[in-house]
Fold:
Amino acid sequence: MYSFKNDYSEGAHPRILNALIESNLVQDEGYGEDKYSQEAIDLLKQKLGRTDIDIHFLTGGTQTNLTSISAFLRPIDAAIAAHTGHIFVHETGAIEATGHKVITCDARVDGKLTPKKIKGVLDSHPDEHMVKPKLVYISNTTEIGSIYKKRELEDLSKFCKENQLILYLDGARLGSALCSEENDLKLSDLPDLVDAFYIGGTKNGALLGEALVICKESLKEDFRFHMKQKGALLAKGRLIGIQFLELFRDNLYFELADHANKMASKLSDGIRQANLTFLTHSPSNQIFPILPNALVNELQKDYLFYNWEKVDAENSAVRLVTSWATREEEVMRFVERILRFCQTESR
Amino acid sequence: MYSFKNDYSEGAHPRILNALIESNLVQDEGYGEDKYSQEAIDLLKQKLGRTDIDIHFLTGGTQTNLTSISAFLRPIDAAIAAHTGHIFVHETGAIEATGHKVITCDARVDGKLTPKKIKGVLDSHPDEHMVKPKLVYISNTTEIGSIYKKRELEDLSKFCKENQLILYLDGARLGSALCSEENDLKLSDLPDLVDAFYIGGTKNGALLGEALVICKESLKEDFRFHMKQKGALLAKGRLIGIQFLELFRDNLYFELADHANKMASKLSDGIRQANLTFLTHSPSNQIFPILPNALVNELQKDYLFYNWEKVDAENSAVRLVTSWATREEEVMRFVERILRFCQTESR
Amino acid sequence: MYSFKNDYSEGAHPRILNALIESNLVQDEGYGEDKYSQEAIDLLKQKLGRTDIDIHFLTGGTQTNLTSISAFLRPIDAAIAAHTGHIFVHETGAIEATGHKVITCDARVDGKLTPKKIKGVLDSHPDEHMVKPKLVYISNTTEIGSIYKKRELEDLSKFCKENQLILYLDGARLGSALCSEENDLKLSDLPDLVDAFYIGGTKNGALLGEALVICKESLKEDFRFHMKQKGALLAKGRLIGIQFLELFRDNLYFELADHANKMASKLSDGIRQANLTFLTHSPSNQIFPILPNALVNELQKDYLFYNWEKVDAENSAVRLVTSWATREEEVMRFVERILRFCQTESR
Amino acid sequence: MYSFKNDYSEGAHPRILNALIESNLVQDEGYGEDKYSQEAIDLLKQKLGRTDIDIHFLTGGTQTNLTSISAFLRPIDAAIAAHTGHIFVHETGAIEATGHKVITCDARVDGKLTPKKIKGVLDSHPDEHMVKPKLVYISNTTEIGSIYKKRELEDLSKFCKENQLILYLDGARLGSALCSEENDLKLSDLPDLVDAFYIGGTKNGALLGEALVICKESLKEDFRFHMKQKGALLAKGRLIGIQFLELFRDNLYFELADHANKMASKLSDGIRQANLTFLTHSPSNQIFPILPNALVNELQKDYLFYNWEKVDAENSAVRLVTSWATREEEVMRFVERILRFCQTESR
Structure:
């Protein structure tokens, strides 16, 4: 069985393991105050072109989202998210567990928020009988594989500033977004556009780890206290620092994401060649082809992937995810299998 | 500089890194449902002599404590801890942040709770104007290096059962406790004595990871939901499973703890030889010698350790911690330094 | 100006004020342990035909909802509500502030939940990456004036029991529901059908006060602790006990609700006579007629009421609420004003 | 039986009931936006000599404390209180339930905090492994009947300002404090000295109600949202507004507190005359005489009061509370009973 189920099916890129081995017996400070973490932070600041930002390493996406959002909001404040947003759907109510409502906007077509949608939320929350919408949560790539273009992010940024809203970007798959063929954003554009975001490590070659970047001055204060309180300060914080240092020492982070995207692209090309269509437009490492149920059954004999949703009586959308570790020969075999099936069918 | 500051100054035991390397490219399920985690759980159940227990892997002590305690308690319930207890002092109010008061008992002498102390808490919480004391939190080793003898734990266990109290044991340094020369507890005694506990990995040779063991049936339900909600389900959950599998595959876990204890013991012996005394009796990998301030200053030129507290105008207690990675030659050098200092002084 | 804005524009029914005066200087216990509260509880148990239920007095609807729901749920549990539900829309995120997500079902037509809608929620919450839907929140009357028929409630009750869901009924306007011409439910039916509900006092003639009835055994434990923790135990708890005693001593509670309904009915009749229609079918003390904007403007010169929503360019739905205190002559004057306007217009 | 158990054993001062009756059928806005509440707020601002303060009416002390403190603090912030403080002891963990630790200082002698004690707390909370002490909670009168002198409050105020601490005063019995013979504070001194405080109504003649005064600009924002979220916005908010309007229309509030103090003073004088002593110095409406157990038993035949604590084998401290409603003849009878007992004993 080969898995296209997700981008966290393997361990870490070998260079990361090597970095752990090399540093293993060096003694250093605990709780992220080690020199590796400090160097990784300095390096990321360089890549982001800013020194007036704070960077913290956390272990995973849900932890990063809940620690940040609960630190940034007052008890009466709510987050706004796409109805497909990870914090609304797939974090077991983690944000609500810290006391905050998540208000959703319909984002059926592309998984994205727009100023217009957010405006609608503001208008329907006029007084003290309702929560205060205060933070806008977006993901790039989105949960359905789409990406934000620079212009879209600029519009959101402007709207949020004008309306005193915090703009927060979940970058669990930021690597894939920035390496997408359709992307026109640079990593260093982000600190100007959003108030906080994270650079996902777990889904792009690290064992674990996300780098939270806090850009807005007023959100920085005492953040390590929030991390400790939420159980997010690792005693051996170096574990994440070392990994980010390796990922950003040269271009490794982007090479890994680029590979994942290329593999997804090859899958898409093959699927298109078989005259099959897609549920959403997703120029990233997650694709959602619509396949005949018989083909789905056939593929499931040798491949693991998620059934995303039933499209009609005979067809289903599935989710295929590629990663830094996806092997090209498996991609080719998978595509051939589809083509073969479709040729047989069409005869 | 050599550090006796804590037991998380290095990476992981080399065998653990090897296990990560060997499994690195094998594809497996996410979120702790991989075969490594499952095997590690089965192995731990064997070692604990029980199949009717649930085991979960979390990343660190604070996370394990807050996820468990908030899962086990109703909103009105409180935890009882020694005033030195980690959840009361050193977790940035993590338990309170989940809504629960931590009630303390004075434990100045030995950092331990007793039925009598807990009884005092119950008696002073008679009605609905006060919280309900519901969970007893103990640590073994304690935060000041002492250990619970089997008889003490049996007494606590009996008292808690009689009073419908949940008994929870923080085992961040359980390895050191069980390998102490004074210990008469077996790992497999614990499921009968406490309702939940964790086996600490971070402080005994792992990169990160604690194995939470839930023994009481009513506390097991839906625990993975609580983990996800608190950001404690790693996408690459295998990372912790692989480590515990390696630690318990043979006797490695205990060998590492034993080494740490032996190193602490050598430090203690040397310090005693210099006619110096200790703040607490700690037959484990943390010791608290009382040193003349001049000696503290001298040692700090080459060693890192915590100043614990001022004892009198001329003397201070310091904390020395050893680990699986502590080098014996450094221990010997440190002891010689002390002896030399004391000889010079006494002349 | 006369107000049809809500059912809490005046003080209390005069008999309630008299009861307060008469008992005023009698000394009694605090925090709801006075004899008035005890008598009121006994009386309500009689009216409900059950002795195995617990009754508590709280000050208002939001407080009752948040105290109950947070007491009944574990951290990972969520409530299910109509998208129009009070806890979702108009309580400033009070439920989320206690840590619980509110999942909504579309209830555009009638503001009600059905087994089918709830089933949809259960089906879309299959695993630990999502919260556990655990409590079903309904209101009777609903937020848009509709009522649950006995059969509908029986179906919900059966479904909830089969699916281990707690069924909770918000009875802020329960008097109006039970006195509706279309109602076929008795107050004493409720303990068999729902797990907890409250009998609203504030909106039916009391100064303040709601009587929470807990029917399900497992939800009763330590409820006064939860009340105290949420600031819901009045020092002079007698204040609410005395009022409920007066409301249920004879038939006063139902007479007041009946008056409110009759006044709403007269308003509806008059509006229908003017050939105007309604946004929803509401056989209770809240009605939502659709009026020409010009008529709305005309009426607003002398009457207070809420603009509910724009229906089209020329028409708006408004909300008219009647109460125990609504004066019939004002109702008649209001109707005449509408009829006069419509006659003039139609000429 | 006559009760000296507390100051909330009766209803309300008759003038308050009259005010409710007179306003009863006037229609007005809900949720505290009525003209009575607005007038009461204006009146209180006058009495406080400040227009730049915000005033809100809540139903009780615990509700006021939990709503304020949770609104004022960030998740990582803690309150500091005397170990006798109401929020620490008698509110069922209400503050912790909103996520905040309450750190205590020993206040055995007089129930009061001092800059020195608070300094000790700050010094022992140096880094992110511990909560941030951020709000100082004091009560006046304190829970054991003592009062803060102006100089003490000025010292606390200065210290808090210098250390960026919020100073919050619980005024459940502020009337009694300000009318104490030993008092040198004026009501209008408070806004300059503390950041927020409340003027207690429940324990000084109202049916229910506390007036929260927010003095510090940064604490004012969106406070009504916090109230609604905590269930503290009464639909008939006028109920509290009308009462405070009556209490402060002239000098009624202070006359009631003065009566309570006078009655306590007469009790104290009598007890002193019998050569009995007191547990604490309490120049207010709560006194804590130490009585022979036999006398306690004798008195309990006809009087209700709390046994406070055992002093030695033969003597106990009891708590006697007087109020606006305490009848002087009952006070005299009680004193006579004590004197008679002591004379008999001494013979």
Observations:
- Chain B is about 40% helix and 15% strand.
- Chain B touches chain A through 52 residues (CB under 8 Å).
